[in-house]
Specification:
The chain is mostly helical. The protein has four helices and no strands. The longest helix has 30 residues.
């Protein structure tokens, strides 16, 4: 179930990116370069704008709802509780650093 919801989340994210890029901005946006300029001839200019803005709203809402559902109910490893070292209260002892002993260099007679 987790992987299915994540896959749906990825598909919604890609669709959301495409719908946002298709919308016209003040400078024409990327809609003109990606063939989005022809969408006005299919729906009409006003209806295309309404369709794109409503689909953006629905896709964004679905994206947020699925992200919350996955996070709250289906996140793997959620049932496992592990205490950190700080929470366990155990003191750890670190051995004292060993200073290497240096011997004097031997001289040859």
């Amino acid at each position: 179930m987790y992987f299915t919801l994540v896959l749906i989340e990825i598909v919604i994210a890609v669709l959301l990116i495409l719908v946002i890029l298709m919308q016209n901005s003040k400078g024409g946006g990327l809609a003109a370069g990606m063939g989005g300029s022809n969408i006005g001839t299919v729906f009409g200019v006003r209806r295309a704008s309404d369709f794109l803005s409503k689909s953006t709203t629905y896709l964004a809402t679905a994206f947020i709802v699925i992200a919350l559902v996955v996070n709250l109910f289906f996140l793997p490893g959620k049932g496992k509780t592990q205490e950190s070292v700080i929470q366990s209260g155990q003191t750890t002892t670190v051995p004292a650093p060993q200073i290497p002993t240096q011997t004097a260099p031997q001289t040859n007679p």
